[in-house]
Amino acid sequence: MFIVNLTYIKPLDKVEKFLEKHIDFLNQYYTKGHFIASGRKNPRTGGIILMRAKNKETVQEIIMQDPFYKNEIAQYDIIEFEVSKYCPEFETIISKSFDDK
C-alpha cells in the first residue's frame, strides 16, 4: 500500500488549469483498482492519494502520467507501508487482485 503526497510547486491558478485533466487521471486509476482514496490537503497546498500497487516502480510509472507531474505543478513523495491492521470493511480492498496497468 502506498500514500502519495502531492505538494503544489506552482500557484493555485496554474493548478486550476490542469485540475480537470488531473481528475480524469484519478478516475482512470480508480477504474483500474489502483486508487483507494484521494483528496485535497487542508489548507490547499496539495493532495493525498491512497493507492495499491505491486511495487514503488509501478507507483512511479502511474504518477508520471498525472498532468500535475507532466506540467510540473506538484512534487510527489511516495510512502510505502505494510497494512497490518484495518477495519473489516477494508478487507475487500486489501485482498482484491488487480492488473498492474
Automatic annotation (TrEMBL):
InterPro entries: Dimeric_a/b-barrel, YCII. Residues 1-81 form the YCII-related domain. It comes from the Bacteria. Pfam families: YCII. Belongs to the YciI family. PANTHER family: GSR2449 PROTEIN, YCII-RELATED DOMAIN-CONTAINING PROTEIN. This is YciI family protein. It comes from Streptococcus raffinosi. The lineage of its organism: Bacteria, Bacillati, Bacillota, Bacilli, Lactobacillales.
